[in-house]
Amino acid sequence: MAVIELKNINKYFGTGTSRVHVLSDINFSADKGELILVVGPSGSGKSTFLTIAGGLQTPSSGEVIVENQSVEQLSKKRRDKLRLNHVGFVLQSYSLVPYLKVKEQLEFVGKVKPKGNLSKTELQSLLSQLGIEDLVNKYPGELSGGQTQRVAIARALYANPEIVLADEPTAALDSARVEEVGKLFKELADTRKKAVVIVTHDTRLMAFADKTYEIMDGKLRLKQPSQTTE
């Protein structure tokens, strides 16, 4: 059963002669236990697709359904609560709080969402799997790009969301770390039955995907299995 659906989504930016059709009649769904990639070059609409899916942007037309609730029909307060309890974001900008240590970034999540998060044991296992267990007393400014990326992933997954939306989660990682992160997202889907949607241009992640879509010029299409090995 789909936990997130996009129905006939269109998104425009600008007006008049400068109007740009960023997303065109997008239809998409993800079930629990699926890891889905959406691949495409820069400027193809990947990030817009992801932020609309997670309710951070509103579409110009169409409907987003999360956990059987139409996001556009919710009040802002209920929409924020739906995101908080059901959707985890790993955004390309990382969005770490610069004056909080890594452990405090996680503690902050616990204050905002006090229930339903990973246990201490599960969190420690996650930090170890990501190779950042020794960084908990570091500030974001003391981390490399790859370390910052992995902390952002840990922060999103600590909240234990049913839906994980990731924007270029391996952009700053070397091949060994890409494999580790790919395995982690695959485990989230297979073992923990999360719906994981990753937008990326990193073809190294295709080996872990159950489905791969291509987005080009704002249009989305499912790539056939033979195409994912290109």
Automatic annotation (TrEMBL):
One of its GO terms (cellular component) is membrane protein complex. It holds the Pfam family ABC_tran. The complex is composed of two ATP-binding proteins (HrtA), two transmembrane proteins (HrtB) and a solute-binding protein. It comes from Lentilactobacillus farraginis DSM 18382 = JCM 14108. Residues 4-230 form the ABC transporter domain. It is found in: Cell membrane. This is Putative hemin import ATP-binding protein HrtA. InterPro entries: AAA+_ATPase, ABC_transporter-like_ATP-bd, ABC_transpr_LolD-like, MacB-like_ATP-bd, P-loop_NTPase. One of its GO terms (biological process) is amino acid transport. One of its GO terms (molecular function) is ATP binding. Belongs to the ABC transporter superfamily. HrtA family. Part of the ABC transporter complex hrt involved in hemin import. Responsible for energy coupling to the transport system. Its main location: membrane. Transmembrane segments: none annotated. SUPFAM superfamilies: P-loop containing nucleoside triphosphate hydrolases. It is a peripheral membrane protein. It comes from the Bacteria. The keyword Cell membrane applies. Keywords: Amino-acid transport, ATP-binding, Cell membrane, Membrane, Nucleotide-binding, Transport.
